[in-house]
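debug: dumping io for the single-chain case to check the tokenizer round-trip. Nothing else runs in this session.
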Amino acid sequence: MVIYTSRSAFYSPLALVVVAAIGLAALLLQLRFRKEGVGRVRAPLWLNVLGLIFALGAVIADIVHLSANVMLVAALGSVLCFAISGTAVLHALRKN
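debug: decoded output
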């Protein structure tokens, strides 16, 4: 997915949120369709919900034209939540 994304897209905080969310969704779909270990590995729900809240906050901050710092912090929080969640899933998969 990152290969097909242009370089200019990484300068936008909202584009980074979208790329992170798509990556996490792809990982969770792969986990769901995987034959072995389906019930043993679970993504941390609270972390995904927190990432979604941060992502919605970043979108709302952009729509309402709040300060750029608010949007950047919300976007960074969302990307971090999605990254930590994805890392936790991958770590659990490698453990098994």
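debug: round-trip ok. The two ends are 26 Å apart (CA to CA).
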